[in-house]
Each structure stands twice: as structure tokens, then as C-alpha cells.
Please model this.
Amino acid sequence: MRNYQTDVKYLREEGISELLTTFKEFLQEINWANRCNFKIGT
Model:
């Protein structure tokens, strides 16, 4: 069983930056959709 602290350390060092990048891209897509008055799901 992996050590929880090791997982947290890994996520903080390796995962956070990638997660934030993905989240920023997600927000940019939403902003683009809003500017185009695009309704999600239609």
C-alpha cells in the first residue's frame, strides 16, 4: 500500500500544475462558448 504522504507530495509537485493547466483550458472554452452565445447541450 502506497504512503498517503507520498501521494500528496507527488500530486502537489507533479499533478497540480497539469491540473491547473487543464482547468485554465476548460475555463477558456467556457469563455469562448459564452462569447458565441453557445448553449451547452444544444
Remarks:
- The chain has one helix and no strands.
